[in-house]
Amino acid sequence: xxxxxxxxxxxxxxxxxxxxxxxxxxxxxxxxxxxxxxxxxxxxxxxxxxxxxxxxxxxxxxxxxxxxxxxxxxxxxxxxxxxxxxxxxxxxxxxxxxxxxxxxxxxxxxxxxxxxxxxxxxxxxxxxxxxxxxxxxxxxxxxxxxxxxxxxxxxxxxxxxxxxxxxxxxxxxxxxxxxxxxxxxxxxxxxxxxxxxxxxxxxxxxxxxxxxxxxxxxxxxxxxxxxxxxxxxxxxxxxxxxxxxxxxxxxxxxxxxxxxxxxxxxxxxxxxxxxxxxxxxxxxxxxxxxxxxxxxxxxxxxxxxxxxxxxxxxxxxxxxxxxxxxxxxxxxxxxxxxxxxxxxxxxxxxxxxxxxxxxxxxxxxxxxxxxxxxxxx
Length: 377
Hints:
Elements: E1 5-9, E2 17-21, E3 33-41, E4 44-45, E5 51-55, E6 60-69, E7 75-86, E8 92-94, H1 104-107, E9 111-116, E10 121-129, E11 137-152, E12 158-173, E13 181-191, E14 200-210, E15 216-225, E16 233-235, E17 240-243, E18 248-258, E19 262-273, E20 288-296, H2 299-352, H3 369-376
Parallel strand pairs: 1-12, 5-12
Antiparallel strand pairs: 2-3, 3-4, 3-6, 6-10, 7-8, 7-9, 7-11, 11-12, 13-14, 14-18, 15-16, 15-17, 15-19, 19-20
C-alpha cells in the first residue's frame, strides 16, 4: 500500500473556518466530517475573526480556541499550531505538518489529541510565549485541528489524507518596524494574432516581495508605452493581497490593446497598504517600482510592407525594361527605314545619270554603210 500525507483542505479565513472531509473512505461507510476552529472566551466563541496580539519580547499571553464538531459521530482531532506562509498565488496558508515550526508555531504551547462528541464544542486553552530575542514586527501562524483519514486516490492507491482547518494568529512583537515592499523578477512578453493592423497583449509577470517586518498588501498600477513614448497604456489590477514578512507573491497580468511598436516598456508600481486586519498606526510607506521592456515587432505589417516594396521595385524594373525594349524596337525600326530610304535614293540617283560618250542610247538604230552604197548604185 502506497501511503502519502496529503493536505486535502486548509481553511484559515477571516471568518470562522469549517472543513468537510470528503475523501473516499476505504470502508465506503464513514459519513462526511465537518468541523471548525475559532477564537473563544470563557463563554464560547466571541466573534473574533482571528487572534491578534501585540506583545513585548519575552512576554506571554493566554487565550482560548473553540473546536466545533458538526459531524454525526465523535471525532478525535490533532490540535496544534504552525507557522504561516504565503502560497505562490498570494494565499494565506500554513507550513506542512512535517515542517518544523520556528516562530508562532513553536511559541504556542499546543499539541494534543482532543475528542469532540457529535454536535459539541470544546474550548482549548493555549499560551503564546514570545522569546526575549524575537525580532520586532509581524509574525503569523495559526491553530489547526486536523483529521487523518485513509482514502483511495485516482490511481487506486491507498493514501493518508491530512484534512485540516484552523484560524489565523497575527502577532506583532514590539520594536522598530520597517514596512517595505519590493517588485522583483519583472518580465514582459508580447503576443498577438496574425490579423494585420491589430493590437496585441503584453503579459507582465513579477514578484511582490515583503522585504520589511510588517505584513502589507499593495495597490498595483501598470503603465507602458512603445518606442518614443507612443501607444501609452495603463492597467490597474486588483490589489495584491496580504504579503507576510519575508514572503513573495507572484503576479501575472495581461495588458490588452498594446500596439506593436517594435519595443514595449512596462513599469510596475506597487503602493504598500496596511491590511484591514492590521494596526491602524500611521506608517511611512514607500512605493516600489520596476520597469523592463520586450520586443513588440509588427511582423505582419513588416511582411506586408516588404511585399509592397518588392512589388513596387518589380513594377518599376518591369516598366524600365519595357521602355528600354520599346526604345530598342523603335531605334531598330528607324534604322531599317533609313536604310531602305538610302537604298531608294541611291537607285534613283543611278537612273538619273546621262549615258557616256560613244555609247548608243538604248534602242537607237545604227545605220550600215553597205546599205547606203547599194542605194546609190
